Amino acid sequence: MAKVKPIPDEYPRVTPYLHVKGAADAIEFYKTVFSAGERGRMDAPNGTIGHAELEIGDSMIMLSDEAPEMNAYAPGHFGGTPVSLHVYVDDVDAVFAAALAAGAKSLNDVADQFYGDRSGTFEDPWGHKWNVSSHVEDVSPEEMEKRAAAQQQG
Predict the structure, then answer these.
(1) Euclidean distance between CA atoms 119 and 128, whole angstroms
(2) Rg for the chain (alpha carbons), in Å?
(3) Which residue stretches does the UniProt record annotate as biased composition, category Basic and acidic residues (predicted)?
């Protein structure tokens, strides 16, 4: 019998797994906002989505509908989420605008950051926080330290 790889080639080492109320709509949102590609979807017996896999660039997220019987709860169950997902994109302004147009809520508007990224944060309609960025400037560690200190001093 052939030895099976413990980490399949087609999966990254770390993959966020999101639980939402309304996974089918969430998949469409991620396709619209991030140009996500759907790798696969398995329906649960009750007509919800038991498991889905989406590719965003060279990364992946997995998601399902909330399933309390499996201790799989959406952020609303906890009053929100302490976790945010970071995604580098080609055009942060366009992605952020698409997210807001698709129903996301702005948490931090897109702005240039001292560390060389242009970024913003939104909450998707299912309660997950996304930080989206485009790298716009290479900043040396010394310059980054100066800029951070200046920012802290206001």
Answers:
(1) 17
(2) 18
(3) 135-148
Q: Is 64 exposed, middle or buried (0-12, 13-18, 19+ CB in 10 A)?
A: buried
Joined tokens for residue 17: 């797994």
What are the residues whose beta carbons fall under 8 Å from the beta carbon of 143, sequence distance 6 or more?
Answer: none
Per-residue pLDDT, averaged over 96-121, amounts to: 97
Looking at the DSSP bridge assignments, the partners of residue 106 are 122
Supply 32's token pair: 């619209």
Q: How confident is the model at residue 154 (pLDDT cuts 50, 70, 90)?
A: confident
How far apart, in whole angstroms, are the C-alpha atoms of residue 85 and residue 105? 15
User: Which residue intervals of the chain are DSSP H helices?
Assistant: 23-34, 92-101, 141-152
Q: Are 84 and 100 in contact (CB under 8 A)?
A: no
55 sits in which H/E element: strand 49-56
The answer to whether the beta carbons of residues 67 and 19 sit under 8 Å apart is yes
